[in-house]
Each structure stands twice: as C-alpha cells, then as structure tokens.
Amino acid sequence: MQNVLVTGGAGFIGSNFIRYLLNQDPDVSIVNLDALTYAGSMENLGDLPGDGRHTFVQGNICNRELVSELLEKYQVDTIVHFAAETHVDRSILGPDVFVQTNVMGTFTLLDVARQFWLEMDAFSGQRVHFHHVSTDEVYGSLSPDDDDFSETTPYDPRSPYSASKAASDHFVRAYYHTYGLPVTLTNCSNNYGPYQFPEKLIPLMILNALNSKPLPIYGDGKQIRDWLYVIDHCEGIYRVLQNGRLGETYNIGGENQPFNIDLVQEICDYLDEIRPASDSYSSLITHVPDRPGHDRRYAMDISKINTELGWAPRYDLSAGIRKTVDWYLDNLDWVVAVMERGGLDDWINENYAKRGVK
Ligand code: NAD
Ligand code: TYD
User: Is residue 344 within a helix (H) or strand (E), and if so which, with residue range?
Assistant: First the structure.
C-alpha cells in the first residue's frame, strides 16, 4: 500500500482514518476524494500535517472521468471507500441521493478500478486492493433472543440507507467473483467519537444538553446499538488492509450494547459531573414519535476478525463517551463551523418539528 485513494475522507470516519493511517505508515501517500456534502468539511482535516502526503480533491465519486484521472495521475494502488450518504432519518425523507451515491457511486469506483487495475494492467504483478466500508445495518433487526450478526447472516435491510449499502456490498462481491477485482469488506456497528456531524445520536445529545434543549428519544428508547469508538474502527480497517483475505467480509463491533435511553442517561450523568447545571441534564429527555421502520437491535459477532487478524476493541463505552464529550466541549468552534456549513438548524426543523420538538 503506497498510493491510497480515500473516498469520503472529509467526513467523520474517513477523516479519523486519514489521521490514523498517516500516523501508522510514514511511507503512504493519500488522495482524499470528497464531494463536501453537508456532512463533509475541511474543518475535519485542519490539523493534518502539511507534508504533502495528503492531497484533497473536491469531487463526486459518481464522476467517472474524475475518478479515472485520479487513479492514473496518483498511480493509486489501494482504494478505501467511505464516501456515502449515512443518516437513516435523511434516507427516509429523501432516498434518491442514497441510491445515487451509495449504489451508483460505489459501482463507478469499482468499474474504474477494474478498468485501470485489470484491463489496463497498470500494476502488473503488484498488489492492488479495493476496501469497502459498510455497516451492520445491512443485516436488519435482531429480536432479543436472536444470535448476533455474523458474516453469514442473510441480508435483510429495512431502511433506504441500509438497502443502498446492501446493494453496494453486493456489487463489491460481484466484482470479486466476476472480474477477480481484489476486494475486502468490513461491516461495522455504530461509531462515535471526534468529528461526528451533530445530526447523529451522541453528538446531538451532547450539544442539545449544553444548550438546554430537549433530548429527543425515538419511541420507548429501548432500541439497542453496538457502539464502537471510531479509532477502534480505523484500526480494524487497517488490519484488514494489511492481512485480510481477499474476497472476505469482516464484521467489526464494539461489544457495547446499551439501550439508547441508558446511553443518553450516561451522557447526562457525565455532564452533570463536569458541567453541573441547576437541574440534571436528564430532565431534558423527551420521548418523541418513533422513526418509521426503526430497527430494534444490532449486535455484532466479531469472532472472525478477532481470530484471523487479532483485532478487538480497545475502548470501553464509558471511557469512550467521556473522551467524546470532552472533545466536543473542547471544540465548540468546530461545532459552530460545521453546523453552519452543514445547515444543521434546517435539518433539526425538518426532522424534529413534526415530532413536536425544536
Ligand atoms: P459521514 O456522513 O460523516 O461522511 C460521509 C462523507 O462522504 C462526507 O465527507 C461527504 O461529503 C462524502 N460524500 C458523500 N457523498 C459523496 C459523493 N457522492 N462523492 C464524494 N464524497 C461524498 O459518514 P461516516 O459516518 O464517516 O461514514 C463513512 C462510511 O462508514 C460510510 O460508508 C458509512 O456507511 C460507513 N459506516 C458508518 C458508521 C457510523 O456509525 N457512522 C458505521 C458503520 C459504517
Ligand atoms: P443514529 O445515530 O441516527 O444512528 P443509526 O440510526 O444509524 O443507528 O441513531 C442511533 C440510535 O438512536 C437509533 O436507534 C435512533 C436513535 N435516535 C434517537 O432516539 N433520537 C435521535 O434524535 C436520533 C438522531 C437517533
């Protein structure tokens, strides 16, 4: 791995991954292709070393000419594909762009890589690698007694977001089997940590609490997610890039599976400890109408990546939540900048006003 194209590297996980990879591997050069949608921001990349090992290109992964040009110009031997529309609630209100970016964009990257690496034989004999970053949501929703999701759990996506990610996963595998494109996939559970756009549960709750705004809990709040600190995810991807078997999928998860309501309570408890207000922050918790088709429970079986590649999460949830709350409190300038740039207030009005919350 020498010249890496990272897509979506101005987003939450992509920007953390670029920082991680530059630290891990002093010889790697990265081209970062990102459209800078509402979710991406140059503010996420401001602290990167200016040593020429990271080149940012603003552009769309659906633009075939641009992707071809980048592979050739930078002699890309590895693609790590994060770029996507990622918010389930947005996929319910506007699914079209999810199909465009997540399905057509992934298809475009795969097809250009096939042409450049296999047809033109640009790297004859050398290792090339396409890694696709996906989600646990493709597996659907677990009942309380179901086994955790394994790599062989049948796909059963239930939101436009997860359906589009499932379709992209199928294309990645199809390119492996049909054309021999050297691919790997990771399907990961919910991430949290620095640089997450504050539309997602954890940063939204931290910032609403600080601003004395309601903390909107969908339905009864007894849904379960499998939370993973973002740096653990980056390490898992890195292990797969180094030693993962081609054609294989690896599930990544945090083994931290609280009810949503208990997770929000934990955030409130920590804020009560470090920023006490007249009332506990938990008095702001407000149950609101549920998300349509809301998946009840996710839980990942991580035994494959653990056994084959020695990966396991390093952060437990309490330590990770504390670190994350501290990061948001220390980076309120970043918060203001990305909220303005990403039009977060408009989104809050669109998604929450109809639930009776502003
Ligand atoms: P994000 O929404 O924070 O960032 C997505 C990035 O992709 C943004 O920078 C955006 O500008 C860019 N982008 C969107 N459409 C694009 C396009 N057409 N062309 C180029 N760039 C485009 O997302 P994230 O949370 O960092 O997720 C990254 C990847 O990880 C996604 O593929 C997602 O499905 C997957 N994933 C996320 C989680 C999670 O909890 N956040 C969990 C598992 C898997
Ligand atoms: P989210 O961060 O949107 O991730 P995902 O939908 O991909 O799992 O939501 C995490 C959980 O929190 C999910 O069960 C939905 C719930 N949730 C709320 O209860 N209120 C909110 O305002 C948001 C954004 C999410």
Answer: helix 344-352
Instruction: Pull the structure tokens for residue 16.
Output: 């953390």
**Which residue, by CA, sits nearest to atom 10 of ligand 2?**
201
Active site residues: 136-137, 161
Please report how the helices 260-274 and 201-210 are oriented relative to each other, as an axis angle in degrees rounded to 10.
40
Residue 80 Cα, ligand 1 centroid: separation in angstroms? 12
The helix (H) or strand (E) run that includes residue 30 is strand 29-34
Q: How far apart are alpha carbons 358 and 123 in whole angstroms?
A: 54
For residue 200, the ligand 2 atom closest to its alpha carbon is 2
Kindly give the residue spans of alpha helices, DSSP state H, lying in 114-224: 160-179, 201-210
Helices 64-73/106-113 angle, 10° precision? 40
pLDDT per residue over 72-127, tens digit each?
A: 999 999 999 999 999 999 999 999 999 999 999 999 999 999 999 999 988 888 99
Cβ-based neighbour number of residue 74 at 10 Å:
17
Pick the CATH number of 3-193+228-255+294-315 from 2.60.40.2470, 3.40.1350.10, 3.40.50.720, 3.40.30.10: 3.40.50.720
Q: Are 328 and 203 in contact (CB under 8 A)?
A: yes
Q: Model's pTM, two decimal places?
A: 0.98
Residues with CB under 6 Å of ligand 2 are: 88, 190, 200-201, 204, 216-218, 223, 225, 260, 291
What are the sequence ranges of the domains in the chain?
Answer: 3-193+228-255+294-315
CA of residue 200 to ligand 2 center, whole Å? 6
- If one counts every other C-beta atom within 10 angstroms of the C-beta of residue 209, the result is 25
Nearest to 32 by CA among 10, 16, 49: 10
